[in-house]
Amino acid sequence: MFNDFIFPDVLLYILDMIGIMACAIAGTLLAQHKSFDVAGCILVAMVNAIGGGTLRDMALDRHPLFWMTDLNYLIVITVTSLVLQIFVHLYDKIDNALKLFDAIGLAAFSVIGFNVALGQDMLPVIAIMMGVWTAIIGGLLRDIICNEIPLLLRREIYITASVAGSVTYLLLEHWGMPARLNEFIMLGVIFAVRMLALRFDWHLPSIRLVG
Asked: What digits encode the pLDDT tens for the residues 56-97?
């Protein structure tokens, strides 16, 4: 019944746009913090928002790339970045704001990438990987451009959150959970794991040989 209530394509498109806006905000915030000009902020926002999806589509041989056939992506990124630059002063707590919007983008893009791969009849492990790629590559490129140590290289619970959401989806699917509801659960799991890790300072352990 839940599947009948929400059109799959519409739901995925909405999730995609949520992720696009969240990543555009995160990219613009960091670029502003680094004193980039207007064009620089928009560039960083675009790299953050569409970088992961671009690599995913190239890996899956999906052409033309998604943002080349739908200009709404570029329009939303540009408008979001401009509005943020014009009307919003730099947050005092840039790190907290960046991590919040990054978590939203992580959750939304993980769901998108995972579902795109499943739609291409990829194996579950490849679908999980595509969810991770879609979610993290844009942020990785953003941090490199802004001369920051990428979040995913700081012992953060980041990739782990994406994987946890994907595994939850596969388990619930095995138990008969409707796909659309399952996507919302996956979204919630990823966002919750990421935010809880930030709240309680969870980190992955380092592996060292004992001499």
From this structure: 999 999 989 999 999 999 999 999 999 998 877 655 566 677
Q: Is the pTM of this model over 0.70?
A: yes
Please report how many Cα atoms fall inside a 13 Å half-sphere around the Cα of residue 179, on the Cβ side.
Answer: 14
Helix H segments across 120-149? 124-145
Cα–Cα distance between 50 and 56 in angstroms, integer?
10
DSSP 3-state assignment of 156?
strand
Rg (CA), the chain: 17
Q: How far apart are CA 35 and CA 14, in angstroms?
A: 31
Tallying the residues shown for the chain, one arrives at: 211
Compute CA distances 121 → 38, 52, 126, whole Å: 41, 20, 10
Burial 50-68 (b: 16+ CB within 10 A, else e): bbbbbbbbeebeeeebbbe
